[in-house]
């Protein structure tokens, strides 16, 4: 009687390991792309919310002006979704014209993209 050996050869195991590595690499790249799009969408949503709140502030202001500084944005209870913003840079910019009748707001998302909102639109 002869005994049969059961199991996998080293070549078969290496092929399986290579295939798993390729699938993992594809998944990681796809996940990163999805995550970046999610950060950008969150930033755009925050900017849209900010635009509405700034317009409401201007309508309620007796002089019909926008807030002067970034600190004044606290008065409109505006909060950013912190997980979506790049923390390695100065990630939030707010500036108004000398007459406070025009504003510009800029941010950097974690995806590396920058977005700007002005009183004329995004």
Task: Please give a handful of descriptors for the protein shown.
13% strand; 122 residues; alpha+beta; three-stranded antiparallel sheet; 42% helix
Quick overview of this protein structure:
The chain has 1 helix and 3 strands, in the order αβββ. The chain has 122 residues and is an alpha+beta fold. The longest helix is centred in the N-terminal third of the chain and has 51 residues, at 10-60.
Report on the architecture of this protein.
It is rod-shaped and about 100 Å long. The chain has one helix at residues 10-60; strands at 92-96, 103-108, 114-118. Helices cover 42% and strands 13% of the residues. The mean pLDDT is 85. It has a three-stranded antiparallel sheet, covered by helices on one side. The longest helix is centred in the first third of the chain and has 51 residues, at 10-60. It is α+β, with helices and mostly antiparallel strands and 122 residues long.
**SSE order, as H and E?**
HEEE
> Average pLDDT across residues?
85
In percent, how much strand structure appears in the residues?
5-15%
Structural class: alpha+beta
Radius of gyration: 26 Å
Total helical segments: 1
The strands making up the biggest β-sheet line up spatially as 1-2-3
- The gross shape turns out to be rod-shaped
Which residues sit in consecutive blocks of at least 5 with pLDDT less than 50? none
Beta-strand segment tally: 3
Largest sheet: 3 strands, antiparallel
Helix content: 40-55%
């Amino acid at each position: 009687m002869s005994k049969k050996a059961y199991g996998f050869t080293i070549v078969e195991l290496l092929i399986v390991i290579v295939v798993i590595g390729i699938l993992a690499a594809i998944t990681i790249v796809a996940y990163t792309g999805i995550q970046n799009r999610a950060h950008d969408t969150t930033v755009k949503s925050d900017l849209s919310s900010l635009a509405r709140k700034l317009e409401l502030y201007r309508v309620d202001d007796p002089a019909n002006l926008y807030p002067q500084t970034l600190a004044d944005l606290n008065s409109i209870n505006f909060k950013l979704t912190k997980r979506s913003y790049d923390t390695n840079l100065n990630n939030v910019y707010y500036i108004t014209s000398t007459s406070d009748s025009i504003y510009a707001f800029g941010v950097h998302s974690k995806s590396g993209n920058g977005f700007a909102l002005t009183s004329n639109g995004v």
